[in-house]
Amino acid sequence: MPGKDDVVSLLSRTELFAGLPSDDLTACATAFREAHFAKGKVLFVRGDVGRKLFLVVEGRVRLAVHSDEGRELAFRHATAGDLFGEIATLDGDLRTADATAITPVTAYTLDQNAFRSLWSSRSTISDQLIRFLCKRLRETSTQLESIALYPLHVRLARFLLVALANRKPPPGKRLPLDLGFSQSELAMLLGASRPKVNEALGMLETAGALGRTQDRMFCDPDKLAAIAEQAND
């Protein structure tokens, strides 16, 4: 079992549990269990019965769906501090996506029955849960809108701005950015092929919004923002 104080500290920084009273955080932390997954391990697949909520401590987990033709669309990467698997864990129904560790992963897991007991007996947790699910729904709607309506280079610019997390470079400089995953993973997140993403990267490079070396990317947030704003023109 993980140290309770460590779990409380991590939970207090998550979207779902942040802001809860200390006694609620402690009750939640006590119910979590530590788990480890090797790179490439499939945590669950679409259609599995949901039994656990996952909280990533270290590593990266790909959440994806597959078409009948075998095409894979990764709609999110869960990294340190991210929760996933909440939908099926809440209603006891089937998983809606696949979850695969793309690096070695350490996570805390919360059993469905324990989770249900917590939010059904503590109103502050149930209130937080409603807000959390509404935020998830809005994020999914925004992502689907982006894939359906905006050119790939605009989607890519918006994605990179989020990855930069509001960092600002020194005057006349660009910000280094390490995405922490391959261009193939980036293509799946953007709903495009790898060659198309490489083409979009080239367009941003031509526009001066980024530069690339063999192993690094350097971004100009202002130019990326100008390109991203094309989505609102």
Report on the architecture of this protein.
The chain has helices at residues 4-11, 22-31, 86-91, 112-121, 123-149, 152-164, 183-190, 194-206, 221-228, and strands at residues 33-37, 42-44, 52-58, 61-66, 72-78, 83-84, 98-101, 105-111, 175-177, 210-212, 217-219. By secondary structure, the chain is of the alpha+beta class. Strands 1-8-3-6 form a four-stranded antiparallel β-sheet. The protein has a four-stranded antiparallel β-sheet with strand order 2-7-4-5. It has a three-stranded antiparallel β-sheet with strand order 9-11-10. Helix 1 (4-11) packs across helix 2, helix 6 crosses helix 8 (194-206) and helix 7 crosses helix 8. The model has no long low-confidence stretch (mean pLDDT 87).
Sum up the structure in keywords.
Arc Repressor Mutant, subunit A, 2 domains, four-stranded antiparallel β-sheet, globular, alpha+beta, single chain, Jelly Rolls
Summarize the structure.
By secondary structure, the chain is of the alpha+beta class. Helices cover 44% and strands 21% of the residues.
